[in-house]
Amino acid sequence: MKGLGDLMKQAERLRVEMARIQEEVAGKKVEASAGGGMVTVACNGRGEIISVKIDPEVVQAGELDMLQDLIVAATNEALRKSRDLLAQEMSRLTGGLNLAGLI
Q: Which among 1, 25, 79, 101 could disulfide-bond with 45, CB atoms 3.0 to 4.6 Å apart, if both were Cys?
């Protein structure tokens, strides 16, 4: 049973370290833009949108459909970057193991 106890301790250490990394990544910021920088979206490591910047010329052009598409594209890219950031940090912790279902 000693082996099982050691395994449980190791799993607990891994859980604590994963929680620490998630908290650390939550404080980081990623940005993505669309339309050559006409729309820029920033989000944190938790996948929460924290800002949206829109070039005033896009609004003046009256291209509402285009603006909406640019916002969606930039937002999706920022969220993807946020997920990738967390996955990279977790991969370093686990030595490349895929624990996607656990985080």
A: 25
Give the three-class secondary structure for 19.
Answer: helix
Q: Is pLDDT above 80 for 98?
A: no
Give me the half-sphere count of Cα atoms (radius 13 Å) on the Cβ side of residue 67.
13
> What is the per-residue DSSP string for 22-67?
HHHHHT-EEEEEETTTTEEEEEETTS-EEEEEE-HHHHHTT-HHHH
- The amino acid present at 60, given as its one-letter code, is Q
CA pair distance 80, 76, nearest whole angstrom: 6
pTM more than 0.85: no
| Cβ proximity of 93 and 16 under 8 Å | no
